[in-house]
Write a structure and sequence with these properties.
Pfam families: RRF. Residues 111-271 form the Ribosome recycling factor domain. One of its GO terms (biological process) is translation. The protein starts with a helix and ends with a helix. The protein is 57% helix and 9% strand. The protein is of the alpha+beta class. Helix 6 (97-118) packs parallel to helix 9. It has helices at residues 2-7, 11-15, 24-42, 60-80, 88-91, 97-118, 166-174, 198-232, 238-271; strands at 132-135, 138-141, 147-151, 154-158, 183-185, 188-192. The chain is elongated, with a radius of gyration of 37 Å. Strand 5 and strand 6 form a beta hairpin. It folds into three domains: 2-77, no CATH class; 88-111 and 198-271, Ribosome-recycling factor (Topoisomerase I, Chain A, domain 4), CATH 1.10.132.20; 122-192, Gyrase A, domain 2, CATH 3.30.1360. The protein is built from nine helices and six strands. The strands form two sheets. It has a four-stranded antiparallel sheet with strand order 3-4-6-5, with no helix packed on it. The protein has a two-stranded antiparallel ribbon with strand order 1-2.
Length: 274
């Protein structure tokens, strides 16, 4: 590049250079310094090969950069504008917020309880006892129907008090999600403690996702039911409907994100190797 610059300069230009520039090396350095200053001062002097002893500036590159930055900024603003500030006072005139929030809270608590009841890696103390058994149209905890004896590798259930509940107890154990396989001997059930395998962990993680989806759908149903009731009201303007709709959507989304965190934590715990 330096040689190209030197040989493309007209002789007249070389003759007018300062006297101390008496060699090709000094002349080349002189023009290099001038070019560098131009780049710094103009900020956009992107030099192309010399053509007819003139330096050409590629201004199109600057314009393109500006367009890209504007497009990015526009996207960032659009993304940040999606955030919805939740203000219950704003919608309390049209929605029973206490009832709405209570229903949302109940769905999250039900998710947590289902994870505890149905997604335990080991049949540890307090887990089998709380298995829900549907007997004679009512829900009972297992410990209310049987006597439980724990052994190192097995749990023995004595069902002599409610022998008629044996079929329901066996079904509840098999569907508990704990990989239990009860063996019946009269009014006694022997339940070997399952080995925690990789397949068992993955199965529980899959069950966790199914329970989560049920919770998420329930949260959306609560929101949609409230929206339907809102549209039936005649004393509310379209603008108010839009604002309330946005608030309900934001609240529902917040609870779904809470459920996401609970699911993620549970799945990591289930798939964690000891």
């Amino acid at each position: 590049m330096r040689n190209l610059l030197f040989y493309n300069l007209p002789k007249l230009a070389i003759n007018k250079l300062p006297a101390h520039l008496n060699s090709q090396t000094n002349i080349t350095r002189y023009f290099s310094i001038i070019s560098t200053k131009k780049i710094v001062n103009n900020k956009v002097n992107l030099l192309l090969p010399v053509n007819n002893n003139h330096v050409v500036i590629n201004k199109n590159l600057l314009s393109l950069s500006c367009v890209l930055l504007k497009a990015k900024d526009k996207g960032d603003k659009k993304k940040s504008s999606k955030a919805q500030h939740i203000n219950l006072n704003e919608i309390s005139e049209f929605v029973d917020t206490d009832k709405f929030i209570s229903q949302m809270d109940h769905s999250i608590e039900e998710l947590k309880n289902n994870f505890i009841k149905h997604l335990t890696l080991r049949s540890s103390a307090g887990s089998i006892e709380q298995i829900s058994v549907n007997f004679e149209g009512e829900e009972f905890m297992l410990q209310e129907l049987v006597q439980i004896v724990r052994k190192p590798k097995m749990i023995v259930l004595n069902v002599t008090t409610f022998p008629q509940a044996l079929p329901q107890i066996i079904e509840a154990l098999e569907k508990s999600g704990m990989n239990l396989n009860p063996q019946q001997d009269g009014t006694t059930l022997f339940v070997p403690l399952p080995k925690v395998t990789k397949e068992h962990r993955e199965g529980l993680a899959k069950n966790a996702k199914a329970i989560y989806i049920k919770c998420r759908d329930n949260l959306k149903d609560i929101k949609n039911k409230e929206l339907k009731n809102l549209k039936k009201k005649t004393s509310i303007s379209e603008d108010q409907v839009r604002r309330v709709h946005g608030q309900l959507e934001a609240i529902c989304e917040k609870y779904i994100k809470d459920a996401d965190v609970i699911l993620d934590t549970k799945q990591k715990d289930l798939l964690k190797t000891e």
